Amino acid sequence: MKKVSVILADGFEEIEGLTVVDLLRRATIYVDTVSITEDYTVHGAHGINVQTEDLFEEVNFVESDMIVLPGGMPGTKNLDAHEGVRRVVKDFFSEGKKIGAICAAPTVLSNLGLLKGKRVTCYPAMEKEIQGAALTGAPVTVDGNLITSQGVGTAIEFALKLIEVLAGKEKADEVAESIVYERK
Question: Sheet of 54-55: strands edge to edge?
């Protein structure tokens, strides 16, 4: 079974994080929610508190097939400031393992110098923070092991693309149909 670690920081955008968790679980993909704080409860950007399964230090990321970074503020800045997150992102990138980032979160990858020559998308107001990448402006963009998306309004399409990458188009279409979502 595929395993995905969704990394949550205080100030994360709830829809972006929880849509991924919900839809991947519907696709029977194992999802682990991971707190980068010292507490299992992570505080969303809009006052929604989320109980995670694990603290960052408890996770062996080698077991994960994909990591996902939700956006939101100050969640993205908190992810970017966390040395462990930066290390795991660099490790996944160098190993060719899958990385999903939505909204402002692609800036974490950009700040690590990982987006040079890559095709990506992000929250439009954050485009100026992305260095060396070709910005597509698309709702979701896949370039090799990177899957990026624009934000809250594209969260379902992003989650379905993650399912497609991990489990195939048929599974993604099956989940889309089950939630009455028409894929583009």
Answer: 54-55, 30-35, 3-8, 66-69, 98-102, 146-149, 140-143
Nearest to 13 by CA among 84, 82, 102: 102
Q: What residue ranges define each of the domains in the chain, with the CATH number in brackets?
A: 3-178 (3.40.50.880)
CB neighbourhood size of 182 (10 A): 6
Instruction: List the catalytic residue out of 20, 45, 103, 140.
Output: 103
pLDDT tens digits, one per residue of 18-70 = 999 999 999 999 999 999 999 999 999 999 999 999 999 999 999 999 999 99
**pTM score of the predicted model:** 0.97
Q: Which helix (H) or strand (E) holds 14?
A: helix 14-26
Tokens of 88: 């795991």
Does the active-site annotation cover 122? Answer: no
How far is residue 106's CA from residue 92's CA, in Å, rounded to a whole number?
14
For 104, list phi and psi in degrees, rounded to 5.
Answer: -85, -15
